[in-house]
């Protein structure tokens, strides 16, 4: 009986999370007219190709996806590196003002982004970065959440290992890349999933920064389908559906890393 | 550490004070920059324009013609999308950087920008003043703030009453006989009895229909700078909506999507809305071709105004432009010329706010979608009658307060006068403006 209730709850939870996604697939394969019919369609339709062609011609979807992909990959790689290095420094090095520095990093997490928008925009404008790729990558490389996450990961790392590395004559960089980093793969995997998702879904900043259509990212370009007197729902849904694919891929890829890292640690311990 | 910060701020301040512009600091200049009339000579340089939707399409199509007529000039049109356009524009104005030479603004947005960023947009009155009589007066008033003209009107949005010919026929009602809102209510009751359809679709949680009716009565939220949402005209407008609601003649649907869906599904017999609705009808519901007709908006009194406005845009020149002359030349060429306005009506269905364009034979063509009716002539004749109203930078705030008042009356049965009195008091305390007018 209790088991049945748990099952029921699980099924209900699954339905709640799957139905919107299913509707996205359904909507992506119908034309706008069919979507507003009553009753609305319940099965995927046959307009996938024509919607795809329309999406490509209205917002150059393939180019937009490519832009989003490479900027998100570059950002994720760089920002993960910066987070790991800063976190390592804050966790394992003793220097004056370390506590203050950590406090500052944590404090910046609490500043709402809306407050930063205008000053950051002015900074970008004064260095001539408006409408450039670096403007959507560089300002957020030092990601306070990532630094904090990595610092916590490094805190538990045994100092003895570092010392033995040093005794064997390894330099700081060698120790970092050769010994420390491989051990925090699970946390790094989690960070990569998180930062990739954040950059992939980033909307307001790229919207403000990017002015040329050839530099648009997916969320900014999809936003163009919402017009004054017409909303291209089929295009929106198809675009949103395709935009979830890279996210799923990244998740699957790094989730394995994430889980295997956790299990590996368990066995070794 | 603390001392250092002081020094840096001090240096920055001095730097700002000594250089007049201070681009990075965003310190507002005292006066609205005025455009200096061109001293003649050929135009040159590149200008950038932000727009969206069909307006961007129109600009893209027209720009090459302007470039051809003015060798050496380049016009670059950027479609920034409608949904978050104002986020971009506001940040650009606030930080005094990153804006193009020309931006598109909807009428309702102009007063807010003019009041909050008096240095952000160029005052066009010096060069555009001569066109004053040639434009839709309501739109000219919307673009004017404190005696300065902040944008040149582009497209008008005269409001009429769209109706379903088939439903009216079924009920035996002649739409042409509707003169006043009282007639409309009677017709609505008859149609509902015969077909089960309500009179029109309205989102009862937002005050847009109330605003349209209020403009029909010649008034905005403010009058002479004073809060006027509890004026007799405002009470009259809201009472009409309440009467319609009490007789169950309003089809309550949420937002834009609700209105489109309900219209497509034929849930209402009429729709009081602007000329651009024809684009939505022909685009989203081609299968309903031949079923719609248009009559002028029912009046409050037998000899009252039979239209209002709902939407429409204008072009503004930002003070960040480095090429004022070319920017103005393009705006003037595009909007204050009959042939270009007619061309944008023909291709993009942008209804001209430039009155001379409205005499073009294009407006006399019969529209197959509307059962052969010459609907554009009807709307064109209404443009001159749109009552100008006072728009202010506080309208957005007032609208928020009115949401509660309007939905309270229409959904919870509050008394219109009481609800509007309360709203007026709240708007007064929020904006610091006195009630009255």
Summarize this structure briefly:
The complex is a heterodimer of chains A (269) and B (437). Chain A is 75% helix and 0% strand. Chain A has 14 helices and no strands.
What is the terminal separation of chain A in angstroms? 39 Å
Strand order of the largest sheet of chain B: 2-1-3-14-6
- Broad structural category of chain A: mainly alpha
CATH topology label of the largest domain in chain B: D-Maltodextrin-Binding Protein, domain 2
Mind telling me which CATH architecture of the largest domain in chain A this is?
Orthogonal Bundle
What's the mean pLDDT score of chain A? 88
CATH superfamily of the largest domain in chain A: MetI-like
Multimeric state of these chains?
Answer: heterodimer
Q: How many β-strands of chain B, per DSSP?
A: 14
Q: Kindly state the percentage of residues in helix of chain A.
A: over 70%
Question: Which descriptor suits the 3D outline of chain B?
Answer: globular
Cα-atom radius of gyration of chain A? 23 Å
The CATH H-level homologous superfamily of the largest domain in chain B? Periplasmic binding protein-like II
What is the helix/strand order of chain A? HHHHHHHHHHHHHH
Q: How many helix segments of chain B?
A: 17
Key attributes of the depicted protein:
heterodimer; A: 269 residues; mainly alpha; MetI-like fold; 2 domains; 75% helix; B: 437 residues; D-Maltodextrin-Binding Protein, domain 2; five-stranded mixed sheet; 17 helices; globular
Topology of this structure?
The complex is a heterodimer of chains A (269) and B (437).
Chain A: H1 2-28, H2 32-35, H3 48-59, H4 61-92, H5 98-109, H6 113-126, H7 134-137, H8 144-155, H9 159-167, H10 172-183, H11 185-201, H12 204-209, H13 218-223, H14 233-268
Helix pairs in contact in A: 1-14, 3-14, 4-8, 4-11, 5-8, 8-11, 9-10, 11-14
Chain B: H1 2-18, E1 45-51, H2 53-69, E2 73-79, H3 85-94, E3 102-106, H4 110-116, H5 125-128, H6 137-143, E4 144-145, E5 148-149, E6 152-153, E7 159-164, H7 165-171, H8 181-195, E8 198-202, H9 208-216, E9 222-223, E10 226-227, H10 232-246, E11 250-252, H11 255-264, E12 268-274, H12 277-284, E13 292-296, E14 313-317, H13 324-335, H14 338-348, H15 375-383, H16 395-412, H17 416-431
Parallel strand pairs in B: 1-2, 1-3, 8-11, 8-12
Antiparallel strand pairs in B: 3-14, 4-5, 6-14, 7-12, 7-13, 9-10
């Amino acid at each position: 009986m209790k088991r049945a209730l748990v099952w029921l709850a699980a099924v209900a939870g699954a339905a709640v999370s799957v139905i919107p996604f299913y509707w996205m697939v359904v909507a992506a394969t119908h034309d706008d007219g069919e979507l507003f019919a009553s009753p609305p369609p319940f099965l995927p339709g046959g307009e996938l190709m024509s919607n795809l062609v329309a999406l490509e011609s209205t917002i150059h979807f393939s180019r937009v996806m490519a832009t989003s992909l490479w900027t998100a990959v570059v950002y994720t790689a760089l920002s993960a590196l910066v987070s790991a290095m800063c976190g390592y420094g804050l966790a394992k090095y003793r220097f004056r003002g370390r506590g203050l520095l950590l406090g500052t990093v944590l404090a910046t997490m609490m500043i709402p982004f809306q407050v930063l928008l205008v000053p950051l925009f002015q900074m970008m404008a004064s260095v001539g970065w408006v409408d450039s790729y670096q403007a959507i990558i560089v300002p957020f490389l030092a990601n306070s959440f990532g630094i904090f996450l990595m610092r916590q990961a490094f805190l538990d790392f045994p100092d003895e290992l570092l010392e033995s590395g040093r005794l064997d004559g390894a330099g700081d960089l060698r120790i970092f890349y050769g010994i420390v980093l491989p051990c925090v793969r699970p946390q790094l995997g989690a960070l990569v999933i998180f930062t990739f998702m954040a950059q992939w879904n980033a909307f307001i900043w790229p919207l403000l920064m990017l002015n040329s259509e050839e530099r648009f990212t997916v969320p900014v370009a999809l936003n163009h389908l919402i017009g004054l007197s017409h909303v291209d729902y089929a295009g929106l849904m198809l675009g949103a559906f395709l935009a979830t694919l890279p996210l799923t891929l990244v998740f699957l890829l790094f989730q394995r890393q994430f889980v295997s890292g956790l299990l590996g640690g368990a066995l070794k311990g | 550490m603390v001392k250092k910060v002081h020094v840096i701020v001090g240096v920055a301040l001095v730097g700002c004070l000594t250089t007049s512009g201070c681009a990075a600091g965003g310190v507002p200049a005292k006066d609205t920059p005025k455009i200096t009339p061109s001293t003649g000579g050929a135009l040159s340089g590149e200008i950038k324009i932000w727009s969206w939707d069909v307006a961007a399409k129109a600009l893209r199509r027209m720009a090459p013609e302007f470039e051809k007529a003015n060798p050496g000039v380049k016009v670059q049109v950027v479609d920034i999308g409608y949904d978050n356009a104002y986020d971009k524009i506001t940040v650009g104005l606030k930080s005094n950087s990153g804006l193009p030479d020309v931006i598109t603004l909807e009428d309702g947005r102009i007063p807010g920008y003019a009041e909050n960023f008096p240095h952000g947009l160029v005052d066009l009155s010096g060069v555009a003043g001569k066109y004053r009589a040639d434009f839709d007066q309501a739109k000219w008033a919307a673009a004017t703030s404190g005696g300065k003209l902040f944008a040149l009107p582009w497209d008008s949005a005269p409001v009429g009453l769209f109706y379903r010919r088939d439903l009216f026929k079924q009920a035996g009602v002649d739409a042409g006989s509707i003169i006043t809102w009282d007639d409309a209510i009677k017709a609505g009751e008859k149609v509902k009895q015969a077909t089960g359809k309500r009179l029109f679709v309205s989102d009862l949680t937002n005050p847009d229909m109330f605003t349209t009716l209020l403009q029909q009565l010649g008034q905005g939220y403010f009058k002479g700078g004073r809060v006027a949402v509890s004026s007799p005209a405002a009470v009259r407008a809201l009472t009409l909506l309440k009467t319609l609601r009490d007789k169950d003649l309003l089809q309550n649907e949420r937002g834009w999507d609700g209105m489109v869906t309900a219209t497509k599904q034929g849930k209402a017999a009429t729709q009081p809305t602007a000329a651009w609705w024809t684009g939505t009808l022909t685009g989203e519901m081609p299968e309903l071709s031949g079923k719609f007709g248009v009559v002028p908006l029912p009046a409050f009194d037998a000899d009252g105004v039979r239209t209002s406005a709902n939407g429409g845009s204008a072009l503004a020149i930002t003070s960040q432009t480095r090429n004022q002359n070319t920017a103005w030349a393009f705006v003037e060429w595009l909007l204050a010329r009959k042939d270009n306005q007619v061309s944008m009506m023909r291709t993009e269905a942008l209804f001209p706010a430039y009155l001379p364009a409205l005499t073009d034979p294009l407006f006399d063509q019969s529209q197959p979608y509307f059962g052969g009716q010459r609907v554009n002539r009807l709307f064109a004749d209404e443009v001159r009658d749109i009552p100008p109203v006072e728009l202010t930078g506080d309208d957005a705030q007032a609208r928020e307060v009115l949401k509660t008042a309007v939905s309270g009356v229409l959904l919870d049965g509050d008394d219109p006068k009481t609800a509007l009195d309360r709203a007026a008091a709240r708007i007064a305390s929020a904006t610091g403006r006195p009630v009255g007018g």
